[in-house]
Specification:
four-stranded parallel sheet; 9 strands; binds N-carbamoyl-L-aspartate; five-stranded parallel sheet
Length: about 300
């Protein structure tokens, strides 16, 4: 039985197969409409979510399966003090596969160790968010036709942004990837990513503060929200929240075939005037999130 805790749980070959399956689902949805009949997905979300939870549910429903779950810690027995280990043992009796989001780093991993059904990490604190990364990779590959030889700009809250951590981990396995890490001093990527992931693997990267300077060199710009819920004080959040705002004027510095991605939710970091630019790919990205989660459910249930 397999779980998904980090994008590295899949080899590059397995990842390619999964993205191929997602593209096939996109092109032939009818073929998969009954693939999960009789199967149940549990969504155990101890932290707020719109896209991740609903795209998991949409994915399972599109496959002909059913869904159950909870969408906040308050509405689960966590409010009574139940551990994730106990919760998952019980959920294992009710469902065939589980997607779990938790504010504590490592909670889905702990759950997976006691689970008798596949567990998918749907975001654990500021740590990892592997299914967002699958979504990002499918989006990049579908739009650019490749995952190698590109300059990727990651902008915003690189410290607490778990989507950024997972995406860096996944992309370094492709040749010719270079990162420009754009953030204020206080929100730079964690040391363990800089040292153990980037430096250790000799991945070219720069850390800069100005988005404008980086813009002309980028093939992908991955914008992120400043993660308010992970700040220790509101003053720091207020000072940093509008540090970057992508406007039409800033985008005019970019290549014509650069794409803007964002895991969403957006707060202020992308001006709505950018939404109509053909390079704005973030809503398309949300659609790809459903296809890739369908492919993941099929793969982990060994129905692919
Ligand atoms: C991201 C997350 O939850 O980490 N959102 C998502 O899953 N689409 C990004 C964020 O909340 O800023």
């Amino acid at each position: 039985m397999r779980h998904l805790m980090s994008p590295l749980d899949l080899s590059v070959k397995e990842l390619d197969d999964l993205l191929d399956l997602a593209n096939d689902i996109e092109n032939n949805p009818k073929k998969y409409a009954h693939a999960c009949e009789g199967k149940k997905l549990a969504t155990c979300f101890y932290e707020p979510s719109t896209r991740t939870r609903l795209s998991f549910e949409a994915a399972m429903l599109n496959l002909g399966g059913s869904v159950l779950g909870f969408s906040s810690a308050d509405s689960s027995s966590a409010a009574k003090g139940e551990s994730v280990s106990d919760t998952i043992r019980v959920i294992s009796c009710y469902a065939d596969i589980c997607a779990m989001r938790h504010p504590k780093e490592g909670a889905p991993l702990v759950a997976s160790q006691k689970s008798t059904i596949p567990v998918i990490n749907a975001g654990d604190g500021g740590h990892q968010h592997p299914t967002q990364t699958l979504t990002d990779l499918l989006t990049i590959r579908s739009l650019k036709g490749k995952l190698d030889h590109m300059t990727i700009g990651l902008c915003g809250d690189l410290k607490f942004g778990r989507t950024v951590h997972s995406l860096i981990n996944a992309l370094i396995r492709y040749p010719g990837i270079r990162f420009i890490l754009i953030s204020p001093e206080e929100l730079r990527i964690p040391d363990y990513i800089r040292e153990d992931v980037l430096r250790k693997n000799n991945i070219p990267f720069e850390e800069v503060e100005r988005l404008d300077d980086a813009m002309p060199n980028l093939d992908i710009l991955y914008m992120t929200r400043v993660q308010r819920e992970r700040f220790f004080n509101e003053e720091d959040y207020i000072r940093l929240k509008d540090y970057y705002v992508l406007t039409k004027q800033k985008l005019s510095l970019a290549k014509d075939d650069m794409y803007v991605l964002h895991p969403l939710p957006r707060v202020n970091e992308i001006s709505v005037e950018v939404d109509d630019d053909p390079r704005a790919a973030y809503f398309k990205q949300a659609q790809y999130g459903v296809y890739v989660r369908m492919a993941l459910i099929l793969t982990l249930l060994e129905l692919a």
